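Subject: for your reference before the review

Hello V.,

The reviewers asked for a structural picture of the protein, and I figured it would be easier to keep everything in one thread rather than splitting it across files. Below is the amino acid sequence we used in the manuscript, unchanged from the supplementary table.
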Amino acid sequence: MPRSVGYAWNSDVALAYEVVGTGSVDLLLLAGAPSNLDVQWESPGYADFLRGLADGRRLIITDRRGTGLSDRFSPGAIPPIESLTDDLLRVLDVVRSQRAVVMAWSEATLVAQLFAATHPDRCAALIMIDPAAAFLPTPGMPWLPDAGQQEAMLASHMTRWGVSLSDEIGREMSDSERDWYLRLQRATTPPGALVAEERRWMETDDGVAARDPRADPGVGRRRRRRILGTGERTVRRREDPDGAAGLLPLT
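And here is what came back from the structure prediction:
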């Protein structure tokens, strides 16, 4: 399947993207870490997944700012989450996509949620896999890892990212898959920037949309959400005017 890799610009920041497939529907894929537009195609399984997403539609994939083929940042200069949503808008403009289905997973779902809330005219639908609304416990999610547990995970990432995999992640991988995944981690971002960005996620929750003046004015009032899905695959959608703010119907 032919690939088309290019760069969009948000001021002086280069944002890597590629377009795969053709169709009347645009699907914008925003992956959580690890992510690298070139290395991800080296895995037969991941390549099959991407080709499946591109079957019958135009798949737009981007490495978010600070990762993969996009411009990196230093651990002391982590951009605010609002910059990441602006980056998505620039990528869509460059590929001439007026409205796209946005698909994201893990920590990238925080960016996708804010993008849907601040640019509902550009978001046809929002698909979230293993979504994150917060990284520290809240009254509504008291089961999340506390600050001490998060710090322990960050310490592990500082020493293991791109070097070795935990048994939980690597036990079902073949030797070649483990080698590829470690290479993908190294090609995503160095461990120092990874941990600095993770600290930014810990300070962010989905209430960021309510604080952004560009967001849907109903954000903050419409808080009821319906979660659809089983296991680790979860999709949020707006069902009615009282549904989740800024999230559009899956049609």
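For the response letter, the relevant points are probably these. Residues 3-135+204-236 form a domain with the Rossmann fold fold (CATH 3.40.50.1820). The chain has eight helices and eight strands.

Happy to draft the paragraph if you're swamped.

O.
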